Amino acid sequence: MQALPIRVVLVDTSHPGNIGAAARAMKNMALRELALVRPRQFPHPEALARASGADDILQGARVCATLAEALQGCGLVLASTARPRDHYFRLLDVREAAVRAVAEAAHAPVGIVFGPEHSGLTNEDLAGAHALLRIPTGEQYASLNLSMAVQVVAYEIMRARGAGVAAAQREQALATPQDMARLYTHLDEVMSEVGFRDRTQHGGNLMNRIRRFLQRAELDGNEVNILRGLLTAVQQRRRRAGEGGEA
């Protein structure tokens, strides 16, 4: 079976054995792209031992300094979480998430992000995700071992492929995380120029709120260009007004 362009991204993994076991889980389910963000120990003999025949996945793994680097070129980004998060994030059951991943992989690589064993992903790590992925568990003990979580997600992706999930209907692929980051930087510049700031009691959450609803909108590259064109027009208009042109 040909591997889909679905990238498993492990962030700040502390135990090398979990990296090896995750590689084995991926190979079992015909996934090949593994990216490691700041692994504590890699390469490591225990990772190789736990891979049990998935040595090629480990050898092909990319070690990255940042999550943004690991997700470079991706369209849809899903972030695994076991903890309750605020309601501004879209939350998908693992089976639904797998169907979305398979459908979107026809257009651009999909990134599925897993956090460190003891703390999970930070809110900063989640900021670039289009949706959160949750694996249903018993209420009394919801925490899964990292490699077990990768195995469950990889299995559901294999299952979705077997069900013949159709490619998502898109004229353009989703904007990459890099495109979205440039949009947010541009938006922040314009908000500063026009004096648009968070006026709520607590303050400081406006950009986070904007990021989350734009991530939920799942913009494609053309839509990002439209928004950035609008922002540029606002800036140009203000410059002309400042130079004594039309207000």
Description of the molecule:
This protein has 247 residues and is of the alpha/beta class. The protein folds into two domains: 157 residues, Alpha/beta knot (3-Layer(aba) Sandwich); 66 residues, Helicase, Ruva Protein, domain 3 (Orthogonal Bundle), CATH 1.10.8.590. The protein is built from ten helices and seven strands. Strands 3-2-1-6-4-7-5 form a seven-stranded parallel β-sheet. It is elongated, with a radius of gyration of 20 Å. The mean pLDDT is 92.
Task: Indicate the topology.
Layout: E1 6-11, H1 16-28, E2 33-37, H2 45-51, H3 55-59, E3 62-64, H4 67-70, E4 77-80, E5 91-93, H5 94-104, E6 110-114, H6 123-126, E7 131-134, H7 146-162, H8 177-194, H9 206-217, H10 221-242
Parallel strand pairs: 1-2, 1-6, 2-3, 4-6, 4-7, 5-7
Helix pairs in contact: 1-2, 1-7, 5-7, 8-10
